[in-house]
Amino acid sequence: MTDELLRFENVHFAYDPHRPVLDGCSCVLVRGNRIALCGDNGSGKSTLLKLAVGLLRPARGTIWAFGRPRTREADFYEVRCRAGLLFQDADDQLFCPTVAEDVAFGPFNLGKSRDEVERIVAETLSSLGLSGYEERVTHKLSGGEKRLVALAGVLAMQPDVLLLDEPAAGLDEAAVARLAELLARLPQTLIVAAHDRAFLTAVTGRRWQLQQGRIADLGRW
After folding, report:
1. pLDDT tens digit string along 140-157?
2. Topology adopted by domain 4-220
């Protein structure tokens, strides 16, 4: 089994052809990496994470995931099962009526039994301090609660890689501390895009700086 999980090779992407977001971006994510993805607002952090799971496609360059180049929609089905993306906006991720249904959606689609799914939902919600939220209506939750439920849905898939876009945004101090403690003990390889240095140093060990469309590996904190 290769230790290389994701690779960008000379990836170019732009929403506006006159303003490239990624401009020859290359980087490699290796099993066990815990990467802080840093950069100014608008530098392309969210774009890079979406490209990794095929929600966007590069204009040029190649994206490798789990040992294979990924170019077509069918190529990314496996990637989305093995790499869990937390969106920056939780409202883009929550679509089931209740919290339990939303967290259960992914495990059910992986073919797990009802008993397995119920156990996963209960354990995942408990880990995020959300026990008792099972029947809460998702669209009535606060912004911070929505973010934690969206993260629960990602964690319930038990992916190999976590791609987290501003996971602590909108959370109060106690929830941020609980989230940092949880992420620090998870076994998964992860990339965390965020601005909060204290949070990043608590949950990651290495920094990537995204600037002018390219990644600079700044090494360990």
Report:
1. 999 889 999 999 999 999
2. Rossmann fold (3.40.50)
